[in-house]
């Protein structure tokens, strides 16, 4: 089970991170703007499946490594913290504030779905992010850590899919609006960067239970 004490914090962090622009959102915007809402929905589902695969890989691998090698726990913790801080700083310093995605060629919906899965699964940064983010909200006192990671990853994935569906619905309108409102995108960058840095600092000082 997931600790009810940390669940609200996780839900807020997950929602804030899911609404922040990233490669997955850009892919959904591109497909939705280029082929319509159905392609946007299908691409979001492909990304969701890819994220579930990444979550399971991280959960199974993380459990075996951290249980057998205590040093690996600290290594993963500090590498993950450094990566999160890096993402935050890069986001704060980014001058790219536009969410306008490039035009894409039209393709069948199954291919759109497969491309969404492959794009996510073959991105090592997704696994590294899950490795750094999800364990912060687990505790051995609440049962199987791998199961907690899978549950948290699923919740995070559901939240992200809902966001991507909404983006698919309003991609064209959102794109036109942000094109003329660079300040709004810049503020969103600062919010996202602050979240990443905060999570990185929290992870660096996290004590093993």
Automatic annotation (TrEMBL):
<keyword id="KW-1003">Cell membrane</keyword>
<keyword id="KW-0472">Membrane</keyword>
<feature type="transmembrane region" description="Helical">
    <location>
        <begin position="75"/>
        <end position="93"/>
    </location>
</feature>
<dbReference type="GO" id="GO:0015171">
    <property type="term" value="F:amino acid transmembrane transporter activity"/>
</dbReference>
<feature type="transmembrane region" description="Helical">
    <location>
        <begin position="187"/>
        <end position="205"/>
    </location>
</feature>
<dbReference type="InterPro" id="IPR001123">
    <property type="entry name" value="LeuE-type"/>
</dbReference>
<feature type="transmembrane region" description="Helical">
    <location>
        <begin position="149"/>
        <end position="175"/>
    </location>
</feature>
<protein>
    <submittedName>
        <fullName>Threonine transporter RhtB</fullName>
    </submittedName>
</protein>
<dbReference type="GO" id="GO:0005886">
    <property type="term" value="C:plasma membrane"/>
</dbReference>
<feature type="transmembrane region" description="Helical">
    <location>
        <begin position="40"/>
        <end position="63"/>
    </location>
</feature>
<feature type="transmembrane region" description="Helical">
    <location>
        <begin position="113"/>
        <end position="137"/>
    </location>
</feature>
<keyword id="KW-1133">Transmembrane helix</keyword>
<keyword id="KW-0812">Transmembrane</keyword>
<dbReference type="Pfam" id="PF01810">
    <property type="entry name" value="LysE"/>
</dbReference>
């Amino acid at each position: 089970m997931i600790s009810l004490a940390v669940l609200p914090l996780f839900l807020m962090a997950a929602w804030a991170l899911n609404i922040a622009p990233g490669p997955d959102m850009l892919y959904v915007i591109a497909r939705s703007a280029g082929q319509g809402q159905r392609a946007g929905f299908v691409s979001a589902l492909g990304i969701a499946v890819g994220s579930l695969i990444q979550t399971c890989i991280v959960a199974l691998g993380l459990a075996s490594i951290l249980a057998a090698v205590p040093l690996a726990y600290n290594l993963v913790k500090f590498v993950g913290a450094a990566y999160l801080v890096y993402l935050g700083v890069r986001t704060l310093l980014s001058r790219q504030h536009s969410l306008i995605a490039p035009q894409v060629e039209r393709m069948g919906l199954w291919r759109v779905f497969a491309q969404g899965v492959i794009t996510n699964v073959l991105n090592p940064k997704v696994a590294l992010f899950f490795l750094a983010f999800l364990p912060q909200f687990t505790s051995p006192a609440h049962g199987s850590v791998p199961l907690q990671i899978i549950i948290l990853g699923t919740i995070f994935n559901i939240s992200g899919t809902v966001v991507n569906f909404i983006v698919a619905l309003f991609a064209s309108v959102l794109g036109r609006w942000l094109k003329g409102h660079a300040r709004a995108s810049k503020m969103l960058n600062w919010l996202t960067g602050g979240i990443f840095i905060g999570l990185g600092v929290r992870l660096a000082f996290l004590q093993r239970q």
